[in-house]
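Exam revision sheet. Question 4 asks you to relate a sequence to its structure. Input first:
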Amino acid sequence: MADPSPVTAPPEKLAWYMRGLWSYFISAGIQSVLLPSLLTFELHVTSDQLGIAQMLSMLPMLLLGLFGGAAADRAELRHHLMRLQLLSVLPPLMLAIVILTDNLSYSFILAYAIMMSSLGGFVMPARDSLLSRVAMMRQGGNIQKAVALAMAGQFLGQVGGFMLGGTAEYFGAHLLLVAQSALLAFAAFTTSRLDPAPPIHVADVRRSPLRDVKAGLLAIWESDRIRPVLIFQFFGGVLFMGVFMVLFPILIRDIYQGDSFQIGLLLMSFFTGIGISSFAVSRFRAIRHQGRTIMMTSGISVSVMLLIHLQPPIWALCLLAAVWGLGGGIAMTISRSIVQETATDAMRARMLAGFTLGTMGGGPIGSFLTGYAIHWLGPLDAVLLPCGLMVVLWLSIFFFTPLWRMEAPRHVPEGPHD
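Answer key, structure tokens:
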């Protein structure tokens, strides 16, 4: 049965937070379509070049996210996040000017990807840490619900961005980049409407960032609840994130002879699945068998890859992407809930940033390797490689870690899911 109790937050503050979240991720969705579209259809790069570009679109964010988490724990979060969002307005405008002056090149797109990813490394932990401050969870409340609501907004916002990004063929990439900048500026405005969020422990403000990063990573690794989730998600990212980031655009170009609209449609299907399942988790009581649920959703990824190998029609490919997203949304929501439940207020941003590095860190590696796997095996055969390796990973996690037996804390009420 649905849990009718809402997340207790001042309605107007939570609404401003969610508006900013939507605006930021609509912008991110536009970028997710434009970047591979410009590379595959305008510059006609090879699969290994696309893999390198997609790797660079993630790697700086993940590495700098550690320092972003340390900075967020020591900063007044509202102004810190607002300044970062305003800085993010500039790179899309620069890329729009390059396109209008007919100077687009592979090297400039790489520079653009690095700039946006670097800024994202500081935006991400600040935004995630601010969520718990804005939501003002009641004592003994269901934090899984707050995380799920934010994730639903995040991924459904990206879906809107994918729809806009898919119109590049009709309106021009430069106009969409201007829209991306406007959305980022609006996100900064919404952040300015929130209450100040000073650091929890003022005494920590002058500590070394490197020392803070080390403390966050150590806290993650010493946690018996977070460590096994991190290991499973990292290697899962190596196996499957490259498929999403590199193989999908190559499939659309080389197998389905599509364009940016089809890339946007495929990404939209995947993230719609994530958004729907994240929202569904937010509407029900907490899932008790957290580890078991995370591991079981990996079977969905394997099944989808096997069916993609059969070269289904484009409508079926989009349906498979949506099913994959449904499972991914459940696993991602539960994983981040485990960190939110386990982390202390003073360490939350650092632990979230470190956890994101671990769970998403497999993405750049997977993108790089997938580009070369496609080059050697072809796009359809390349999807079989992560399927076999996932079986090995799943069995290793089952026998050598406690993830399968991990349950929600006792104060979180059980639900009917399990």
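Marking note for examiners. The domain at 11-193+216-405 is CATH 1.20.1250.20 (Growth Hormone; Chain: A;).
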